[in-house]
Specification:
The protein is an alpha+beta fold. The protein is 37% helix and 21% strand. It has three domains: 220 residues, Rossmann fold (3-Layer(aba) Sandwich), CATH 3.40.50; 83 residues, Chorismate Mutase Domain, subunit A (Up-down Bundle), CATH 1.20.59.20; 124 residues, no CATH class. It has 15 helices and 21 strands. It has a six-stranded mixed β-sheet, with helices on both faces. A five-stranded antiparallel β-sheet has the order 7-8-11-10-9. β2, α3 and β3 form a beta-alpha-beta unit.
């Protein structure tokens, strides 16, 4: 966002205005993530001074984590500050789990960004500065992060699936400059009592390690931020390589294992890492990633590979690795104890383009349209049931009945989808299995009206 080496508290406002003019369009909605700390107060103060000249709609959001005994005081401070500066302020309380396994800091960050993602704004603006960027790089190094993790925080990135952007306009400004601005303008802010707790890794770096580094190299912030930019370039190149390696090898939530096998181990891991990122999954560690590639490529051809990644799993079927949301999967007892779902198609008339039935229990949608000379004969009292086992079905009048297990094996349907595929009954007769066929005796003949049923599972 422009050269920043010479930025001081005296030149901060002009530099900030020029930088934002390159990003913000007139009329843009800009929401500041306001914690009440010095950094975010300075950011809001700068934007208040520019909102008229930039012609922006300014607001603020305060995420109330409730982790500190002073949390209510911080909330009240932010609300009062925004009232004084005539800025709409939205307070969003969150529940931060202490037993999530990722630590309180990470859990709080996850909860905070969930709020940010759902805010109705064009730009969600945060007050991260150059010191934060350098600290993040060091922390990621200590965690053994890869190139993407070491790339640090970007100035601008997409948020909420492209509906808005996350903007960090102060990333190239040192904290000392912001503190000088706050002091000169007699701003008030709150101090987070946890910022001095050196049990947290970031605080340990900030209070114990970085002062020692500064004695030897006062320019550590600049040099580390430069390294982060170089690594960001490298991460972009790796993504471009992965996109080339994966071209034609994946479709939606599926990736061909054959393509992984064709690549060197490093490029296979890079492609899989890129694929998982596109699916917005939590990135496994380097060791886990290597094990995943090994299982996908070396397990027996008929092995049921199922690798859990949090609430998601990677499953191998028909030479592909599938991303499956485990939250959509029902266990066996839930299926067997399920109650038949009534399927009323009486209102569908000839010529109807399509009617869609959402079936949350089965995690999918049933699409029904009319046809002539094919499909299911119109019938009343239709119900949808789960597979219980032992079902037999005869979609071909020239062949005998087959077990449903046999019929599944003739399709390209993954096993986990078969277990919660809708079976359409009329009374006690299994009359239709979408994607498999219509039972003999229930098929519309030439000149007869019929219903075509198509099932689209969630995953």
């Amino acid at each position: 966002m422009g050269a920043t080496k010479a930025v001081t508290s005296a030149t901060l406002a002009d530099w900030f205005a020029r930088s934002l003019q390159q990003v913000l369009q007139p009329g843009a909605r800009v929401c500041v993530g306001l914690s009440g700390g010095m950094d975010s107060v300075v950011l809001l103060h700068l934007l208040v001074g520019l909102r008229d000249s930039l012609n922006i709609h300014l607001s603020a959001v305060h995420v109330h984590h409730g982790l500190s005994r002073y949390a209510d005081d911080w909330r009240d401070f932010c609300v009062a500050l925004c009232q004084r500066w005539n800025v709409p302020c939205f307070v969003q309380p969150v529940m931060v789990p202490r037993d999530s396994g990722e630590g309180v800091e990470a859990a709080a960050r996850t909860a905070r960004y969930q709020i940010f993602t759902n805010i109705e704004t064009d730009y969600l603006v945060l007050a991260h500065h150059r010191d934060d960027q350098a600290e993040t790089l060091l922390l990621q190094l200590l965690r053994g992060a890869g190139v993407k993790g070491l790339a640090g925080m970007p100035v601008l990135r997409s948020l909420a699936a492209g509906r808005s952007f996350l903007l960090r306009p102060l990333l190239d400004v040192e904290r000392a400059v912001l503190l000088a601005w706050a002091t000169e303008h007699r701003l008030q802010w709150v101090e987070d009592d946890s910022n001095t707790d050196v049990h947290y890794a970031r605080n340990f770096l900030r209070h114990r390690i970085l002062p020692l580094i500064a004695e030897h190299d006062p320019a550590w912030r600049t040099t580390l931020a430069r390294s982060a930019r170089h690594l960001a370039d490298a991460a972009i190149l790796l993504d471009e390589l992965a996109a080339q390696d994966g071209k034609g090898a994946w479709q939606e939530n599926r990736l061909q294992c054959e393509r992984l096998a064709e690549l060197s181990p490093a490029r296979a891991r890079n492609l899989l890492r890129y694929f998982l990122a596109q699916q917005q999954l939590t990135m496994p560690s380097e060791a886990q990633l290597a094990q995943i590639v090994q299982q996908l490529l070396q397990a027996r051809r008929d092995a049921m590979v199922n690798i859990r990644l949090g609430k998601t799993s990677l499953r191998r079927f028909a030479g592909q690795v599938w991303v499956v949301d485990e939250a959509t999967m029902l266990d066996e007892s839930a299926r067997k104890n399920s109650v038949p779902v009534s399927l009323c198609l009486d209102g569908i008339r000839s010529g109807t383009q399509e009617i869609v039935f959402s079936l949350p229990l089965l995690s999918g949608t049933l699409h029904v349209r009319t046809a002539t000379g094919k499909g299911l004969l119109p019938a009343q009292n239709l119900t949808i049931r789960f597979r219980h086992g032992g079902e037999r079905f005869r979609p071909d009048c020239h062949r005998p009945q087959r077990t449903l297990k046999y019929l599944w094996q003739t399709t390209a349907l993954p096993p986990w989808q078969r277990e919660q595929w809708p079976l359409v009954y009329c009374g006690e007769a299994l009359v239709c299995i979408p994607g498999v066929g219509v039972a003999c005796g229930w098929q519309a003949q030439d000149g007869e009206s019929g219903w075509l049923l198509e099932w689209l599972p969630a995953c």
